[in-house]
Amino acid sequence: MTLTLPPAEAARELVEPVLREAVGRLDPHTARVARYHFGWTDDSGQPRADGGKALRPTLAVLSGRAAGADVARCLPAAAAVELVHAFSLLHDDVMDDDPVRRHRPAAWTVFGRSAAILCGNALLTLAVDLLLEQGTPGYVAAARALNLATLSLIAGQAQDLAFQDRDDVTREECLRMSRRKTAALLACACSIGVTAVEGPAGLAAALAAFGTEAGLAFQLADDLLGIWGRTEVTGKPVLSDLRTRKKSLPVVAALTGPTEAGRRLADLLARPEPLTEPDLHDAARLIEQAGGRAWAELEAERRLDAATRHLADADMPADVRDSFLHIARFLAFRDH
Amino acid sequence: MTLTLPPAEAARELVEPVLREAVGRLDPHTARVARYHFGWTDDSGQPRADGGKALRPTLAVLSGRAAGADVARCLPAAAAVELVHAFSLLHDDVMDDDPVRRHRPAAWTVFGRSAAILCGNALLTLAVDLLLEQGTPGYVAAARALNLATLSLIAGQAQDLAFQDRDDVTREECLRMSRRKTAALLACACSIGVTAVEGPAGLAAALAAFGTEAGLAFQLADDLLGIWGRTEVTGKPVLSDLRTRKKSLPVVAALTGPTEAGRRLADLLARPEPLTEPDLHDAARLIEQAGGRAWAELEAERRLDAATRHLADADMPADVRDSFLHIARFLAFRDH
Question: Of A160, B69, B250, B305, which has the fewest CB atoms closer than 10 Å, so is most exposed?
Answer without folding.
Answer: B305
